[in-house]
Every structure is written in C-alpha cells, then in structure tokens.
Amino acid sequence: MENCIFCKIIAGEIPSTKIYEDNELIAILDITQTTKGHTLVIPKAHSRNLLAMESEPAGQLFSKIPGIASQIVKNLGASGMNILQNNEEIAGQTVFHTHVHLIPRYTEDDGFS
Ligand code: 5GP
Ligand code: ZN
C-alpha cells in the first residue's frame, strides 16, 4: 500500500533490522527500543489492524508468535516478555499496518508498565 511505512520496509525500500522472515511475515527491531530486543512482528499483506483482518490470516500471524517470542527471550537472556498489539489511534496505534510488539523484560529493566 502506498505511503505505508511497514509496506515500504517489507518491500526493502526503507532499511530495517530484520530478525526473522518467512513467506507471511517479517520480524524487525522497533526503531524505538523500549527494552533491548523490542521487536515488531508484521504480516507482509497490508491490513490496517487486527480489527480489519480475516480470522485466517490473523490466526496464521498469531500461530507464529510463540516461536519467535521464545527464541528472542532465549537468545537475549530475558526473564519474560510483554506482547502488545494496538488497534486504532485511541488505543495507541501510530502505524496503520497490523503489527505485534514483542518487548523482552529483564530483571534489571526499569519496570515500565
Ligand atoms: P504502534 O504505536 O502503532 O503500536 O507501534 C508502531 C511502532 O512502530 C512504534 O513502536 C515505532 O517506534 C515503530 N516504528 C515507526 N516507524 C518505524 C520505522 O521506520 N522502523 C522501525 N523499525 N520501527 C518503526
Ligand atoms: Zn502496509
């Protein structure tokens, strides 16, 4: 989709730090690292947010979250992880292409909530 920053990242038109990719999605480091390893899981097919997705692609997306998330926790030695997903401006969505935040938590982090 034109003027969608995540579509441009998926197309390789804007650089990103990719940590995982398959036919359906990419996982990239968030440009703002809330904690070390803060990752965005982004389906390649454009949709505005989860509220606009059909259940089949949404199910495909979420079926991959546990594997990607647990790999990040293991690789970075995190103690846990917040998994967040914002839908519409009122809920904090700023980029209108569906994405899931994976935010590793560490015993020494500052305890944001
Ligand atoms: P939202 O607020 O929509 O749930 O999350 C959007 C996220 O995208 C924010 O955490 C923001 O830091 C991240 N973001 C915005 N622009 C870029 C970009 O160009 N590259 C990357 N890697 N992340 C971005
Ligand atoms: Zn898009």
From TrEMBL:
It comes from the Bacteria. The active site is at 99 (tele-amp-histidine intermediate). GO terms for biological process: nucleotide metabolic process. Residues 5-112 form the HIT domain. A motif (Histidine triad motif) lies at residues 97-101. One of its GO terms (molecular function) is catalytic activity. This is Histidine triad protein HIT. It comes from Lactococcus termiticola.
